[in-house]
Amino acid sequence: MARQLPIGVLISGNGTNLQAIIDAIEARALDAKIEVVLSNKADAYGLARAQKHNLYTAVLDHKSFSSREAYDQAVVDILRRCKVELVVLAGFMRLLSPLFIKAYSNRIMNIHPALLPAFPGLRVQKKALDHGVRFSGCTVHFVNDECDEGPIIMQAVVPVFPDDSESVLAARILKQEHKIYPRAIQLYAERKVHIVGRRVMVDDLSKDEKQVLIQPQI
Ligand code: NHR
Ligand code: GAR
To answer: Residues lining ligand 2, judged by CB closer than 6 Å?
Structure first.
């Protein structure tokens, strides 16, 4: 097996994306090793998922820090101690300060439940419904100082139906998130992902097209 990329997964909640990453690693579809799962919330269900798989977990509550920078420094210290090479935001609900971005420049990924650059920010499934778009989806991107604006690595599209509720649409999107996030991390682990300006170039994409271009089923 190829070298395992040491990753740290940051969560705030349910952790189904974390679970998809764990499952992909166990199925040998992802050459990575989760060195730490860190949550800003002590009651995040994702922590229980991690513990079930004997992963090292840490809880750092942002409310017990005096500033965003102090919090981010403490998170970075843990990631460094764990020798993490790629930081994976999986439903992590705290914005990262420039201090964090500098420490892990071009080595932080996020998954966002909309087709960026449409609908950045929070509660974006509701924003997509309210706007009346016919398609939405999810985006894996590198994280930079501008919220939800970093270079895009992979996207998947889903249809939006007129009678969708926010939770029905969120579930449809989440299913695609679980497919593309482990794939994007694997491409990075294989060193096939290169940032060129604001674009991301992926080596051998033509060979892998079926894996990467996900067509919506209507
Ligand atoms: N940090 C930076 N610098 N850049 C990005 O693109 C980031 C980021 C941190 C998280 C995920 C993002 C999303 O996919 C993400 C992208 C949290 C907020 C937010 O406003 C916005 C976007 C995202 C995550 N958080 C509030 C804050 O004050 C707290 C909200 C809460 O606790 O519920 O940090 O959507
Ligand atoms: C996912 O839909 C993810 O894209 C979104 O939160 C959900 C987390 O689910 N992320 C954000 O909205 C980031 N602000 P999970 O905890 O089950 O992986």
So the answer is: 11, 13-17, 46, 90-91, 93, 111-113, 122, 174, 177
